[in-house]
Amino acid sequence: MECIIDSLGDLGGTPQSLSSEVVYNVRMNLVECAGRLLMVSRWFRTMACSTSEPFFEHKKRTVVLEVFEADLRTNPARWRRATELGGHALFLGQHCSKSLPASECSGYNKDCIYFMCDYSWPKWPANPLSDSGVYNIRDGTITPLMAGSVGIPPRQVGRWRPTWFFPPELV
């Protein structure tokens, strides 16, 4: 295995829109998009559900997504900030991330990133879609993935996380 991107370029450091006085977690996903290699950084802030709950009752909330493209034409290769997805929609997942032309996905918007609450929770949340959303790379807004989504009934058994499913012809 060989490292081909030696320079962080634009990648690295806390986004300017975030407070330097708050601790954030970050998760990074690699995804191929129309022949480009993208790195998506998803920044989380941990928030207490209420002031009386212990730390393990805190929940994560996605506050910023950043997209970087591998620039393999420079020497050394480096990461550069991306400002568009070429009409594609990205679907981020813990075990798999995918890009598709938005025109082939009914109801999905171009230059948007769809993400789910697919990370581990210390306890099963009442709503496993609570930190799922749609990030618009053009204007930087995050909207809920499913407006008015409801929680899973308490009788639901087992540990599971949401995931993306794609028709075979799109895989």
Can you tell me about this structure?
With 171 residues, the protein is mostly beta strands. It has one domain. 0% of the residues lie in helices and 34% in strands. It has no helices and nine strands. The chain has strands spanning 24-33, 36-47, 59-71, 78-81, 88-91, 98-101, 112-115, 133-136, 142-144. A five-stranded mixed sheet has the order 6-5-7-8-9, with no helix packed on it. Strands 1-2-3-4 form a four-stranded antiparallel sheet, with no helix packed on it. A hairpin with a 6-residue loop joins strand 3 (59-71) and strand 4. The two termini are 26 Å apart.
Helices and strands in order:
Blueprint: E1 24-33, E2 36-47, E3 59-71, E4 78-81, E5 88-91, E6 98-101, E7 112-115, E8 133-136, E9 142-144
Please give the order of strands in the largest beta sheet: 6-5-7-8-9
> How is the biggest beta sheet arranged?
5 strands, mixed
Number of strands: 9
Characterize the overall form: globular
Q: Please state the CA-atom Rg, rounded to the nearest Å.
A: 17 Å
- The percentage of residues in β strands lies in 25-35%
Unreliable spans are: 53-58
**What is the succession of H and E elements?**
EEEEEEEEE
Q: Provide a count of the helices.
A: 0
How helical, in percent, are the residues? Answer: under 10%
First and last CA, distance: 26 Å
